[in-house]
Amino acid sequence: MTQTASGGAETSVDVTATSEVTPTTGSFDSLDPRTGEVVGTHPIHDESAVREAVRLARSGQQWWDELGFAGRKRRLDAWRRVLVSRLDEGAELVSAETGKPLDDARLELVLVVDHLHWAAANAAKVLGRRGVSSGVLMANQAASVEYRPFGVVGVIGPWNYPAFTPMGSIAYALAAGNAVVFKPSELTPGVGEWLRRTFAEVVPEHPLFQVVTGFGDTGAALCRAHVDKVAFTGSTETGKRVMAACSESLTPVLVECGGKDALIVDSDADLHAAAEAALWGAVSNAGQTCIGVERVYVVDSVADRFVQLVADRAERLRPGGQPTADLGPITMGSQVEVIREHIADAVRRGGTAVVGGTDSVRPPFVDPVVLTDVPEDSPAVTEETFGPTIVINRVRTADEGIARANAGRYGLGGTVFSRARGLELARRMRSGMVAVNSVIAFAAVPALPFGGVGDSGFGRIHGAEGLREFGRPQAVTRARFRMPLNPMSFGRSPRTVRRLVALMRLLRGRR
Ligand code: NAD
């Protein structure tokens, strides 16, 4: 059966060619949030199907590992070329399942491709065996460390960037030599299946990249399927459940959760650039970005001008279902009420809706909303809104802005606009990533680690840290010759230890 994803050109979504896992508890549809049309039908994989997927993935892992970094790079490079050649097809699918404008979907896949390139190109350098100094006590040893793959990595993903976000784990885990079982969001299973199918085209020998589809139960089953690591991206509440399930088997976890990122505007900032960035950060992808700008702290002396610049731009933006809309719909229907309540509560508590208001919520769309002077304890300031809204609050100094930014429970990304103090302010932000005088730039730099602190989770995807996340460091010593003084033998004499103590006094007992 072939279905056509809505939103323009023919997109082949062959839903029968799903992973080789047998579905056992029925199927579900993924829908286009703009129209409610069915994009694809997918199996609900239950516990036994998930275990089978892990078994299949594991059956090819050793082969994948033994290809070595160079062999895997060749395959991952080939996958990258397939993704580039089919970029429009993938973008149609991303757009159909999330509702995001087609160019935003294309941009997402451009980032996927660049990260895949980086992971494949750098895995050997970052993870391959390297010698380390063996030190004075073990001078006879050749010491080295290498990152060996865990085995099978379970990847659980969200829907807001259904290709880019999970590929931050999938590409890096594969480059490190792991097999992968991916559980995409129930809202975007087709994108997950598309990734699996394109990979299988360049690695037909073994089913080492599996996809399991379904709801939370399928994800929970993956946590309990004896995978060797779980990389989760999604909400903080689900992240806690994932950790709890993984704790039963001491399965290590990487947890990438929500955020409430702040943007600081200092008195010397380029206000036009800051307004442009604030709006893109807050409203692009209809605000459904974990590292989106949700609140702004602007220094009093420039606040009126800044608010005006943001408002002028926000008023011109319109959501819609057409591929060229400025922003698409709210992908997850249940979030609409959260967005409406955050706006209503902010206004009830004395905040001002400078652009839009509760009337801006027209499901499935929400027009951009700009709120000012919202009390700091309002959900619009403390909780993830995940809609095209922005709160702009005034502060006396940029330092006060940093203090307020750091007061929240999340710590994912952040932004600073300042000519003189950019890096200084950035370093004081309690977050995993900061962009100075631009917004979200760090996510598009493959060499930079991505992840947060606090309720935003822990562990890193992307960059060298992201590669190391998917390998276990293995330390090896190799004896090159016998030491004249060997303290680790029952044959040692008392003189041996005395000499070692004297040596340590000499070398380490002084300044
Ligand atoms: P979610 O937590 O509802 O779901 C995420 C995934 O977890 C889905 O695949 C879901 O089926 C699965 N799941 C649900 N219950 C589960 C359970 N008990 N055990 C295992 N898996 C389970 O999140 P969402 O609504 O899909 O995504 C939006 C959230 O993701 C936002 O909070 C956003 O900030 C966050 N996010 C974070 C990042 C990041 O890198 N930090 C990136 C993108 C999105």
Automatic annotation (TrEMBL):
GO biological process: aldehyde metabolic process
Keyword DNA-binding: no
Skewed-composition ranges (Polar residues): 13-28
Family recorded in the similarity comment: Belongs to the aldehyde dehydrogenase family.
Record has Oxidoreductase as a keyword: yes
Domain of life: Bacteria
Entry annotation: catalytic residues: 256, 290
Gene3D superfamilies found in the cross-reference section: Aldehyde Dehydrogenase, Chain A, domain 1 (3.40.605.10), Aldehyde Dehydrogenase, Chain A, domain 2 (3.40.309.10)
Keywords: Oxidoreductase
CDD domains according to UniProt: ALDH_DDALDH
Protein name (database record): Aldehyde dehydrogenase
GO MF term (any one): oxidoreductase activity, acting on the aldehyde or oxo group of donors, NAD or NADP as acceptor
Annotated stretches, region: Disordered: 1-40
Species assigned in the record: Actinopolyspora mortivallis
Domain Aldehyde dehydrogenase: 25-475
Membrane-spanning intervals of the chain: none
PROSITE patterns (UniProt xref): ALDEHYDE_DEHYDR_CYS, ALDEHYDE_DEHYDR_GLU
InterPro entries for this protein: Ald_DH/histidinol_DH (IPR016161), Ald_DH_C (IPR016163), Ald_DH_CS_CYS (IPR016160), Ald_DH_CS_GLU (IPR029510), Ald_DH_N (IPR016162), Aldehyde_DH_dom (IPR015590), Aldehyde_DH_NAD(P) (IPR012394)
